[in-house]
Structure formats: C-alpha cells, structure tokens
Write a structure and sequence with these properties.
72% helix; single chain; elongated; 4 helices; 114 residues
Length: 114
Amino acid sequence: MSGDRRSWSDEELDAAVQALTEPDRLDHAQHVVARVAPGLQRVLAEALDAGDWFGSAHRAEVLRAAGTADPDERVVAVNTLIAEETRMSMLVGVAVGLELARELAASNPEPMED
C-alpha cells in the first residue's frame, strides 16, 4: 500500500483544515465514527500502548500531579496532564483516521459523494 501514498503541500493541508470549520461539515464523519467507535477505540488503545504513551511514564506523571501538596498547583498539574494526554490521543487518533480513510479509499476507488 505504501506505493500509492500521496504527499500534500502546506497550502493543501491548510485549506483542508479550514474546510473542516464549515457548518455541518463533520456530521457524516461523526456518524461514521459513532458507528465504528468500539473498533476505533481498540485500534487507538493499541496504538497508544505500542507507543508506550500510557506506560510507566504516564503512571509517574499521574502520581506526581495527584501528589502535589498545594491544592491550586495540584489542579494546574492535573489539568496540564489531561490536556497533554488529550493532545497525544488526538494526534494518534488523527493518524488512525488517516489510515482508515486510506484503507476505505483502497477498497473502494469510487469518488465519495458529499
């Protein structure tokens, strides 16, 4: 499959991301994701596990954040940890989504209808 991979220019990527902000643009994608959520969740968990994103380093960060003595600092540490984990999961999720789209396109070369 790697022989048919395409590269996109920065301009194409920027335009595609901008297009995602159009109203109702994500409705179909959200429906598809809801339908296949259990399988995607498994793939995402496996990818995160393979990258050791939530292994011993994660556990150490949880303990550090939760063990912060000052309550205000603890809230900041926990919020920071959640934000970092959310970003990492999102990035891995996007990679999974790109590969899912590539697999779907390869199995059905007909153009998608909007």
